[in-house]
Amino acid sequence: MTSTTLYKNPDALKAALKNVVSLSKEKLDVSNEQNFRKLAYALVYNSIFNSDKDIQELCRWLVRAGADACGIHLASIHDLYMARGRGECSGFTVPAINIRGLTYDVAHTIFKSAMKGKVGPVLFEIARSEIGYTLQRPAEYTTAVVGAALASGYKGPVCMQGDHFQVNAKKYKASSDTELGAIHSLIEEAITGGFFNIDIDASTLVDLTKPNEEAQQEINAALTHEYTMFIRDKEPNSITISIGGEIGEVGTKNSTVEDLQGYMSNYKKKLEKSGKNVPGISKISVQTGTTHGGVPLPDGTIAKVKVDFDTLEKLSKVSREKYGMAGAVQHGASTLPEDAFHIFADRETAEVHLATEFQNMIYDNAAFPADLRQEIYAYLDKECADEKKEGQTQEQFIYKTRKKAFGPFKKQVWDLPADVKTQICSRLETKFDFLFKQLAVLNTDSLTKKFIKPVSVTVAAPNTAGKVLGQAKK
User: Fold this and answer.
1) 358-399: per-residue pLDDT in tens?
2) 50 within 8 A of 56, measured Cβ to Cβ
3) What would the pLDDT profile of 246-282 be if each residue is shown by its tens digit?
4) DSSP character for 296?
């Protein structure tokens, strides 16, 4: 793991970049790729923690533009998912991984494992709620992940995903325009930040009091359609953003084929009525019995959950054969028993979302400093006291709330000693190796090369770029 370096001023950054990169007609020219990749961690670190906002902005641009110059392209998984809907590929489940803390190091570990196993499709995602409590805006999250790709030696597509861009039912009821506008703003920010995969979740507005599934799913489908049109209007040229829909809120009743059909009937009518020939959603998230993060028992261990794989398989099949999508998406799966993961690929699940277990593996690692853990838990006792439910044990409370410490303690976690991060990431690498094998994505890099074509998306250089980098002599 790389040591931290904060550039004290633009001249210090300029010295670090000398004979490595320069500007050529407002485009970044990487003259020494090997040395540029070695600078990746320092650039990422400064893009987040440097107190000089101009240096932050320039480092963020350097990572993204430099990665593109080095053959690392932010990409959409849409074409691969459409190919799966046509039956041109099958037999695997795409891992969608949420990184809440230690983002660069965890992403670096994922790339290391993926390159070792010749893994193709992987989604790096963050949910609307996670953006809030981890204090990672889309551009920051993309910078950390892409920087990790640079440092790892990776070349190829990197798929960033907005997970659960979810309509808050209470806020929607209080002021629908305000809530929907907030998601419009988030979508625009995400696309600007390089998120070319976005999951819209209006399942919170499904009304089970309505007489049939089509009526129950009406608002859900209407809002998904509205956001689909917004995304299509904002997406970059030559890129079709992969959009996901959701028919069942995680933690509620299990989804049915009738739910899917009611939702898609509404959604397709809206698409057709718009008169615009735009691609629709490429996958559908469903509920099959899981809960985000799992259900902690009084001693802090996680209750066993039985996933309804029959329903998951049936919904995936219908979504492919009737609607041309990649299949169904499983949320809240990272804390499932290890012997369950191979079933997702066996049952042709399109995508599985994984988050909490990686968080647990950071906090619970024996190398994680006990004094920092104690400080974090004391913070939670004070700042999240109103979230402690009646009858909940301290272990249950900590388990459910400790995700919210990643934002306030972001720098302390990033600044963990190198040997501590090495031990944490060693265990994580073993976990990623296992998951990639179970989800049958080993040796699938040929699929990304076949279906996900690299597209360079130009990002305007900040005003300080010319002063720090100079112009390349041509």
Assistant:
1) 999 999 999 999 999 999 999 999 999 999 999 999 999 999
2) yes
3) 998 655 678 999 999 999 999 999 999 987 889 999 9
4) B
- Using CA atoms, how far apart are residues 193 and 178, in angstroms rounded to an integer? 22
Q: What is the pTM of this model?
A: 0.94
Q: CA–CA separation, 83 vs 78, rounded Å?
A: 9
CATH number of 75-363+419-451: 3.20.20.70
Counting Cβ atoms within 10 Å, is residue 366 exposed (0-12), middle (13-18) or buried (19+)? exposed
Cα–Cα distance list, 141 to 235, 307, 331 (Å): 19, 30, 20
Amino acid at 186: L
Return d(Cα 33, Cα 216) in angstroms, integer.
54
Average pLDDT of the segment spanning 308-333 = 94
pLDDT attached to residue 307: 80
Contact 205, 250 (CB under 8 A): no
- Taken in order 191, 193, 197, 201, the sign of the CA dihedral is negative
Distances (CA, A) of 292 to 186, 232, 302, 354, 400: 22, 29, 12, 9, 10
Region label for 391, one of left (φ > 0), alpha (ψ between -120 and 50) or beta (otherwise):
left
Residue that is written with structure tokens 């933690």 in the block: 251
Structure tokens at 139: 């551009």
Contact 222, 270 (CB under 8 A): yes
Positions of CATH 3.20.20.70 in the chain: 75-363+419-451
CA-closest candidate to residue 247, choices 288, 209, 277, 278? 288
